[in-house]
Design brief:
about 210 residues, alpha+beta, Ribosomal Protein S4 Delta 41, Chain A, domain 1
C-alpha cells in the first residue's frame, strides 16, 4: 500500500501550524519553531503570499489528509462515503476519519502518533473484537473492543507502554482498562469529539467545484 515516506515536518511547515504528526517530539523538537516558512521558500524572499479562497480550501483539505496520514485517493474515497451518508457531509467526514482503526489505537494511547498506530496495526499487534486485523482503515463500530495480540504483550514496547499508559487520558467516547490495555468504543464519535485542526466545511467546498 502506498504511503508518504518523506519528512513529515515539511507537512507542518507547508500547513503553517503544528499537526502533531510525530507525537511528543512535536512538543520538544519541532522544526516549525525554528523554520516557519514553507518548504522551498528561500530565506529573505518576503512574507508568505496571501492565499485565495480556493487556496485556503486546499490547505484545509491537506491538513486533514496530513493529520490522518491519508493519500489523496484514500481521502477522496472516504469523502465520497461521507457524501452518501445522511447529514452534513463535513461532519460525516470528521466522524469517519475518527472511526479508522489506526486513529482509535492512537486515541487509546497505544501509540504516540497515528503513524506509529498504523504501524502497530499493520504488523498485526492489535486485535479487533478478539480477531487480528492488519487493516488500518477498518472502521470501528459502537461496542467494539481493541486489545493486544497475546504474543505482542511480551515485547519491550508493550512493557514500556504499561508504565506510560497511566498518565494518558482517553476521549469520552472511548474507555480503557489500563491494567490489561483493553479499549472499548462506548459510542461513535461526534464532530465535537474530533478535536479537528481543520474546517470540514472548507473541504466540502473544495470538492464541490
Amino acid at each position: 500500500m502506498a504511503r508518504y515516506t518523506a519528512a513529515v515536518c515539511r507537512l507542518c511547515r507547508r500547513s503553517g501550524e503544528k499537526l502533531m504528526l510525530k507525537g511528543s517530539k512535536c512538543i520538544t523538537k519541532c522544526v516549525l519553531d525554528k523554520r516557519s516558512k514553507p518548504p522551498g521558500q528561500q530565506l529573505g524572499r518576503g512574507r508568505r503570499p496571501r492565499l485565495s479562497e480556493r487556496g485556503l480550501q486546499l490547505r484545509e483539505k491537506q491538513k486533514a489528509r496530513y493529520s490522518y496520514g491519508l493519500l489523496e485517493r484514500q481521502f477522496r474515497r472516504l469523502f465520497a462515503t461521507a457524501e452518501r451518508q445522511s447529514g452534513i457531509t463535513g461532519e460525516n467526514l470528521l466522524v469517519l476519519l475518527e472511526r479508522r482503526l489506526d486513529n482509535v489505537v492512537y486515541r487509546l494511547g497505544f501509540a504516540d502518533s497515528r503513524a506509529q498506530a498504523r504501524q502497530l496495526v499493520r504488523h498485526g499487534h492489535i486485535l479487533l473484537n478478539g480477531r487480528q486485523t492488519d487493516i488500518p482503515s477498518c472502521l470501528i463500530k459502537e461496542g467494539d473492543t481493541i486489545s493486544w495480540k497475546p504474543t505482542s504483550t511480551e515485547s519491550e514496547y508493550y512493557k514500556q507502554l504499561v508504565k506510560d499508559i497511566t498518565s494518558k487520558q482517553v476521549l469520552n467516547w472511548l474507555s480503557l482498562d489500563k491494567e490489561n490495555l483493553v479499549g472499548q468504543v462506548l459510542s461513535l464519535p461526534t464532530p465535537d469529539d474530533t478535536e479537528a485542526k481543520f474546517d470540514g466545511k472548507s473541504i466540502v467546498e473544495f470538492y464541490s467545484r
